[in-house]
Write a structure and sequence with these properties.
It contains nine helices and ten strands. The protein is an alpha/beta fold. Strand 2, helix 2 and strand 3 (50-53) form a beta-alpha-beta unit. The chain has helices at residues 19-27, 39-42, 65-77, 96-105, 118-125, 155-160, 174-183, 213-220, 249-258, and strands spanning 3-8, 30-33, 50-53, 82-86, 109-113, 139-143, 164-168, 191-196, 204-209, 226-230. 41% of the residues are buried. The strands form two sheets. Strands 3-2-4-1-5 form a five-stranded parallel beta sheet, sandwiched between helices. Strands 6-7-10-8-9 form a five-stranded mixed beta sheet, sandwiched between helices.
């Protein structure tokens, strides 16, 4: 019977795969792989497996979703074991729901192998708990992108929701996102962090305030993939050095004299 494994490859590091995900990758005859799936993860595939890289990256030419749909169905109908391998979890901003709908409409069985989503794992990698009883009553995961059939997030509502905001795919619009949140009433000194290549050997991060985050990220040259965390819990990151919530009058006078 035709079957596709929809596999979450976790936040980046190969040793954060689930045991079931590693087994599914190792059993597949064909793997359709997203851009953020690392070579270390793909090393788990059997030598004879066919690997098709079908990832999408912002601002770059990407494989059409219709091609991915048709390729999964075609290989499954040939009797091959097909693994659709996605970074993080297939159902968190990964179009996993769309792919399940397409395959099931064709009568093709789908097994979902959940993965550890970046929105939880990447903040934890620098010591940020996205929920904390002393600081927040919840966490909201939201995409930072707009377009491609997606509505702009309601930044006004998000600024007032009182939860930790974890923003995926927001690097290219970070200045706009920070400005929208502040205009909606979020305090400029709210702790915020940006983490690049989280959980991998290339991981880098910036911890500062919401107002200062765009400039700090640009100065540090952080490059995608970047996850953004906004909320009190961001101040709990390892070695966090937040800018003061209020201007320091002594430092301010020194700056003005020096100028």
């Amino acid at each position: 019977m035709a079957k596709v494994l929809l596999v979450g490859a976790g936040p980046g590091a190969a040793d954060l795969l689930t045991v079931r995900a590693a087994r599914a990758i190792g059993e597949a005859d064909v793997l359709l792989v997203d851009a953020l799936v690392s070579d270390e993860v793909l090393a788990l595939a059997k030598p004879a497996a066919r690997v098709l890289r079908v990832g999408k990256r912002g601002g770059m030419k990407s494989v059409a979703q219709d091609f991915i749909h048709r390729a999964m169905a075609r290989f499954a109908r040939l009797g091959l074991t097909v693994a659709r391998v996605k970074g993080g979890d297939p159902f968190v901003f990964g179009r996993g729901g769309e792919e399940v709908d397409y395959l099931r409409a064709l009568g093709i069985e789908v097994e979902v192998v959940p993965g550890l989503t970046a929105g939880i794992a990447v903040p934890a990698a620098i010591g940020i708990p996205v929920t904390h009883r002393a600081h927040t009553h919840g966490v909201t995961l939201v995409p930072g992108t707009a377009g491609d059939g997606c509505d702009e997030p309601d930044w006004n509502a998000l600024a007032r929701c009182g939860t930790t905001l974890v923003i995926y795919m927001g690097l290219g619009r970070l200045l706009n996102i920070a400005a929208r949140l502040i205009a909606a009433g979020m305090a400029p000194h709210t702790p915020a962090a940006a983490i690049a290549a989280g959980t991998t050997a290339a991981q880098r991060h910036v911890v500062t305030t919401l107002a200062e985050l765009p400039a700090r990220v640009a100065a540090e040259g952080l490059a995608a993939p970047v996850l953004i965390v906004v909320g009190e819990v961001a101040a709990l990151a390892h070695c966090a050095a937040l800018a003061p919530a209020l201007p320091d009058p002594v430092a301010d006078s020194v700056v003005r004299v020096a100028a």
